[in-house]
Design a protein that fits this description.
Number of strands: 6
Radius of gyration: 19 Å
Helix content: 40-55%
Number of domains: 2
CATH superfamily of the largest domain: Vaccinia Virus protein VP39
Distance between the termini: 46 Å
Strand order of the largest sheet: 1-2-6
CATH class of the largest domain: Alpha Beta
Number of helices: 10
């Protein structure tokens, strides 16, 4: 935490704690909260949820929403975006069965730095090697220097928004991303 204090122009951890208690500045509190978050994300992390999406969830959504032909997916705490881009790549693969459907993917996180990285869709060689099949890498990413960037089509599938899960989710609910049912 001492480097965090120095980034804020404070001498040590004691000064940081004092500043948090006395100033009550939202910017400082956000800075400390972001520093404590994990921000761990992998492409196609844990295949079980993707199998469930393919076998159970997507077929149920298609049946339940056939009248509106609209799917809304909320990636809460999306971190740097690998998992949400994995969902987008999966949906892209299902394009034939989703023709004529409107798909809205909303990605939120409270860590603005992680969210900006997700928005850019720019990943190191190490990051793309963690779970991203080579076929998906070549189909959906472009080499930019020593980094890989998600294609414009993939990035266009997602809207990004700063959100703290401990705050009012009313706006997300009104947009249809919270409280829905697929039964």
């Amino acid at each position: 935490m001492a480097p965090l204090a120095r980034k804020q122009g404070l001498a040590d951890l004691d000064e940081l704690i004092k500043a948090i208690r006395t100033r009550k500045e939202e910017k400082l509190l956000n800075f400390v909260t972001e520093a404590m978050t994990t921000n761990e994300s992998l492409f196609f992390r844990d295949m079980a949820p993707f199998d469930q999406l393919r076998k159970t969830i997507l077929p149920r959504i298609l049946a339940a929403r056939s009248g509106t032909r609209r799917i809304r997916i909320w990636s809460a705490a999306c971190s740097t975006g690998q998992e949400l881009y994995s969902i987008a790549m999966y949906l892209k693969e299902e394009a034939a069965s989703l023709a004529g459907w409107r798909i809205d993917i909303l990605a939120t996180d409270l860590a603005t730095e992680a969210l900006e990285k997700a928005k850019a869709g720019l990943y190191s060689q190490f990051e793309v090697q963690r779970g991203l099949p080579i076929q998906q890498l070549m189909k959906n990413f472009t080499k930019v220097g020593d980094m890989w960037q998600a294609s414009p089509a993939l990035r266009a599938m997602v809207q990004f928004q700063t959100n703290n899960l401990l705050t009012d989710l009313g706006p997300l609910n009104r947009a249809g991303f919270v409280g829905g049912s697929i039964s």
